[in-house]
Amino acid sequence: MKVLITGTSGGFGQHLVRAFSEHEIIKYRRGDPMHKCDVLINNGWNNKGGEFESALQAIRLCQEFKSKNKGIIININSVAGLIGSKDEDIYAASKWALRGFTESVKEAWRVEGVHIIDVYPGAMNTGMAADRPGSLIDAKELATFIETLIHPKSFFVKDITIRRI
Fold this sequence. Notes:
Blueprint: E1 2-6, H1 12-19, E2 24-28, E3 39-42, H2 51-68, E4 71-76, H3 80-83, H4 89-110, E5 114-121, H5 139-147, E6 159-162
Parallel strand pairs: 1-2, 1-3, 3-4, 4-5, 5-6
Helix pairs in contact: 1-5
């Protein structure tokens, strides 16, 4: 499968690239042309801006998936997109926007053969959460788990919330 991954320059994106190494990987960076693929992993939303540009690129690719009647989109969101996040209002707002976008197209496009999966992880052991107290989600373990989401043929996963222990 051809897998296009956004946000591969650091942190969780690097773990995703390693987890999907058995597939043909296209690393997408802001400003690159969109490439044809079977799976989009939308990991490009972060707390540094550029969220809406990433979403617009995803929308363009989604249209291609819809015209082919197949495709998998995995949005790496955040629990901040479900419950908000103290002292991170802009970050939380961008995560709610991603959630709103995908919820508005998810059911309609599922019948077209496009499956959209939202993953809502808590704080991971990447640079973004390095100063967080307590246990963190192991980013390598989560990336490996996410790779398994593209294989089922008789069912699909809609949303997954991952919380730290």
